[in-house]
Give the backbone structure.
Amino acid sequence: MEQKIVKQKKIRIDRLDIAKILCPDCGRKKMLQMSDHIFTRQFARIAFRCPCGYTGSAILEKPSDALRDVGLAGTFICSDKARRSGRMTIKRLNSKGITFKTNIEQKIDPGLTLNLEFVLDDAKQSIVKKTVKVLVRNGKYLSAAFTSREHYDNLGPYLFFNKLYV
């Protein structure tokens, strides 16, 4: 009888609190939003199941450089016909994207485009308007990528000054 030794894969959580799990059998990718999970240690073990039938476990690794919450307030508006909008609090911010928490849980699916407006905590209290595409949602937490990588408005110097460029 032969035994299959499966080495557990380490999955690193990125700066937008997203963990990307790849099924070794079929190659499907699943993205998990990890903002509301509280890690007591640097590593956490999770079990996952793929629609192809594969069941496995992985070790999530929290980034060692503990990132502080930005804590900026703002609003969001969905660009579809459903007219979903609300207030948000920005948790993570970098040059690639944003992670935020909405005030109430809404059905905002990955792939939707949102228009964001928020106020920076710089000396001028600059208002920033950006368009993002939702990558993953978990309850009230959403991670989204900026549709434009150029930050020529006041967000660019803010990211540079606070060392948030990736």
Remarks:
- Helices lie at 155-161.
- DSSP finds one helix and eleven strands in the chain.
- The chain has two domains: 9-61, 72-161.
- The chain has a mean pLDDT of 84.
